[in-house]
Amino acid sequence: MEFQNRLDALERRLRAFQIDYERFLAGARATPPEEAEAELGNAVRELRVHARSAADGFRLSALEARFNSYRELFKKRLRESEIGLRPRLPIEEPARHDPHEGVTVSRRVEEDWAAALFQGLYGGGRAPDIDLDSFRRYLERQVATLREKTGCSSVRLRVVDSDGKMKLRAKPVRPGGDGRAS
Question: Is the overall model pTM greater than 0.85, yes or no?
Answer without folding.
Answer: no
